[in-house]
Amino acid sequence: MPRQSATGFALRVCALTALALTALQPAVSFDRISADSLRTNVTWLAADERQGRMTPSPGLDASADYIGEQFRLAGLAPGGTSGTYFQTAPDPGSFTMALESGSGRFKLTGSSVSVYAQAAMEYRNEPVVRLPAAGPMPEIAGRVVAGGAAYATTDALQSLGGGKPSLILLIMDGTRPKAEEAPSTISPVVRIYNRAATALMSGNDDLVVTIHMAASRNVAGILPGSDPALRDQFVIVSAHYDSG
């Protein structure tokens, strides 16, 4: 592939660390890296007041605001939503889940659960509607629903998503596969591979779920290229700004 010049593409900069930020001065010049500019950004982001930039934490939120301000000063166009430098996204690392039915309650994390969601989630002892293996479908709009493997196919998920549940739980036996197809539904989907959870599904007691998944913020700025032929192409430069 031929090499493109710095002016031949549009550069999208997402959640850059202090090292990358030092290259983005108000004139959008890439030749102004200095010991002082490095020291300023690194010192601010690494200060005790940032609390290690743990996810989530006030220090992480402050760091996002700081990076967004540096993008503005550098002259980058906002790459977030509603004309801002921020994109809100769910943080899978914060995901916790518990199922409870009668006297049985257990937590689900790690390799037994896969999560597909476009936003943070917060449910506390939320009633779960068990989906029938066959027959009429109950009212599911705005509710948490749970079904077995029969509902895990692409067609079944699309049909189920049309009912606009707030959350879809797919509870199955076996081991989580190495590859899964992302569901094409706007409702968040949690796939659970756990025999005990399947046993709760088959019981008659009321089933409730507790889920927490926090939101995080991506910070995004755009530096348009000058070549009209390549203006719709993007090179993405990204890095973590949290402590992970």
**Can you tell me the overall shape?**
elongated
Number of strands: 13
Biggest sheet features: 8 strands, mixed
SS-based class: alpha/beta
Report strand order across the widest sheet: 5-4-11-7-8-9-10-6
Number of helical segments with 4 or more residues: 5
Low-confidence stretches are 1-27
In brief:
By secondary structure, the chain is α/β, with parallel strands linked by helices.
List the defining traits of the structure above:
single chain; 244 residues; alpha/beta; Glucose Oxidase, domain 1; 2 domains; 5-stranded mixed sheet; 13 strands; 20% helix; elongated; disordered N terminus
Report on the structure:
The strands form two sheets. This protein has an eight-stranded mixed β-sheet with strand order 5-4-11-7-8-9-10-6, covered by helices on one side. Strands 1, 2, 3, 12 and 13 form a five-stranded mixed β-sheet that branches. The chain is elongated and about 65 Å long. 25% of the residues are buried. It is 20% helix and 30% strand. The protein has five helices and 13 strands. It starts with 9 loop residues before the first strand and ends in a 6-residue tail after the last strand. It has two domains: 104 residues, no CATH class; 122 residues, Glucose Oxidase, domain 1. The N terminus is likely disordered. The chain is of the alpha/beta class and 244 residues long. The longest helix is centred in the N-terminal third of the chain and has 17 residues.
